[in-house]
């Protein structure tokens, strides 16, 4: 049977949706473009069927909807910290509607599309900007938790913007060293892609199998990344785990040279207040889908079917 997922709002222009979202289940939220300046990362959930269903499939759908509630709530909490300590290379949060969506300042394009015709100075600068953002997050006592090319955007000024904080982790958490090793490996992959345009990930195998490939030292580092060969190699092999991101940033600047860009950043950002007001107005006027269930009711509905969520979800 087909499983249909919905968002809290009946969207006025479905054509604005990310086209990929029509063909895959969103992981935590669905991006909807509100204007040239604003996007909203919407919660989603699966409609609970009124006909017989496969239990394993149902559990997956239940957990996906619950992770959307949890993930966006966690992301909004971390953005509260970032809003007190903003950074020019981290996407700006504008407003949060609990259980419905997180409003964000819109970037111009993905890094993948921006890098198609990018020259070497731009690529070098993006690497510096990525490390600057990660070092900043680290200075606040956290790590991103999901460093990946898909979470890198570029704004209208051509500056890299780091996004997607639903898996952020505190550096004080138990076993954080395991996460840090994975993050350094993912960072090395991002640096390689930015400089070469080549993603070393083998998408035909699992994430665990890809980690093993990178750890083995058998993956070729392309010549365009030669200046940071040792940094990428250390990340892939797991040798960077004793380094902070600030130390990796210093090593990158030593290899690529310092930035020539004069980045000005107004932490108050005069346009933010207007965008925040626009977000609140949009949320007030948007029509709620009557099929949408708030988190507690969603949980209770699944429980009534004998599929109560496991602890932690």
Explained architecture:
- The chain is of the alpha+beta class.
- Helix content is 42%, strand content 12%.
- It is built from nine helices and 13 strands.
- The protein has helices at 55-84, 111-114, 120-139, 176-196, 207-216, 229-237, 245-256, 272-285, 295-304; strands at residues 5-6, 9-10, 30-33, 38-42, 45-46, 93-97, 101-105, 109-110, 142-143, 152-154, 160-162, 169-170, 287-288.
- The strands form five sheets. The chain has a four-stranded antiparallel beta sheet with strand order 3-4-7-6, sandwiched between helices. Strands 8-10-11 form a three-stranded antiparallel beta sheet. A two-stranded antiparallel sheet has the order 1-5.
- The two termini are 25 Å apart.
Brief descriptors of the model:
313 residues, alpha+beta, three-stranded antiparallel sheet, 9 helices, 13 strands, 42% helix, 12% strand
Distance from first to last alpha carbon: 25 Å
Helix/strand order, N-terminal first? EEEEEHEEEHHEEEEHHHHHEH
Overall geometry comes to globular
Helix percentage = 40-55%
How would you classify the helix and strand content by structural class?
Answer: alpha+beta
How is this fold's topology laid out?
Elements: E1 5-6, E2 9-10, E3 30-33, E4 38-42, E5 45-46, H1 55-84, E6 93-97, E7 101-105, E8 109-110, H2 111-114, H3 120-139, E9 142-143, E10 152-154, E11 160-162, E12 169-170, H4 176-196, H5 207-216, H6 229-237, H7 245-256, H8 272-285, E13 287-288, H9 295-304
Antiparallel strand pairs: 1-5, 2-13, 3-4, 4-7, 6-7, 8-10, 9-12, 10-11
Helix pairs in contact: 3-4, 3-7, 4-6
């Amino acid at each position: 049977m087909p499983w249909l997922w919905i968002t809290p709002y009946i969207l006025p222009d479905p054509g604005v949706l990310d086209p990929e979202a029509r063909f895959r289940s969103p992981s935590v939220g669905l991006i909807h473009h509100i204007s040239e300046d604003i996007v909203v990362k919407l919660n989603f959930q699966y409609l609970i069927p009124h006909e017989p269903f496969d239990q394993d499939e149902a559990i997956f759908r239940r957990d996906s909807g619950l992770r959307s509630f949890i993930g966006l709530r966690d992301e909004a909490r971390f953005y509260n910290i970032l809003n007190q300590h903003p950074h020019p290379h981290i996407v700006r949060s504008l407003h949060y509607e609990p259980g419905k969506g997180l409003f964000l300042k819109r970037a111009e394009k993905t890094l993948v599309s921006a890098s198609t015709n990018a020259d070497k100075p731009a690529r070098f600068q993006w690497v510096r900007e990525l490390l600057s953002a990660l070092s900043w997050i680290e200075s606040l006592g956290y790590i991103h938790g999901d460093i990946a090319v898909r979470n890198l955007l570029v704004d209208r000024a051509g500056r890299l913007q780091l996004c997607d904080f639903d898996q952020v982790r505190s550096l004080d958490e138990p076993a954080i060293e395991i996460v840090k090793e994975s993050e350094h490996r993912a960072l090395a992959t991002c640096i390689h892609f930015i400089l070469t345009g080549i993603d070393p990930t083998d998408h035909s195998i699992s994430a665990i199998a890809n980690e093993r490939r990178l750890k083995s030292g058998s993956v070729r580092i392309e010549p365009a990344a030669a200046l940071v060969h040792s940094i990428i190699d250390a990340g892939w092999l797991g040798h960077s785990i004793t380094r902070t991101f600030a130390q990796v940033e210093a090593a990158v600047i030593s290899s690529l040279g310092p930035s020539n860009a004069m980045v000005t950043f107004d932490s108050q950002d005069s346009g933010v207040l207007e965008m925040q007001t626009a977000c609140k107005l949009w949320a007030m006027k948007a029509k709620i889908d009557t099929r949408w269930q708030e988190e507690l009711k969603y949980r209770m509905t699944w429980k009534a079917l004998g599929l109560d969520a496991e602890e932690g979800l």
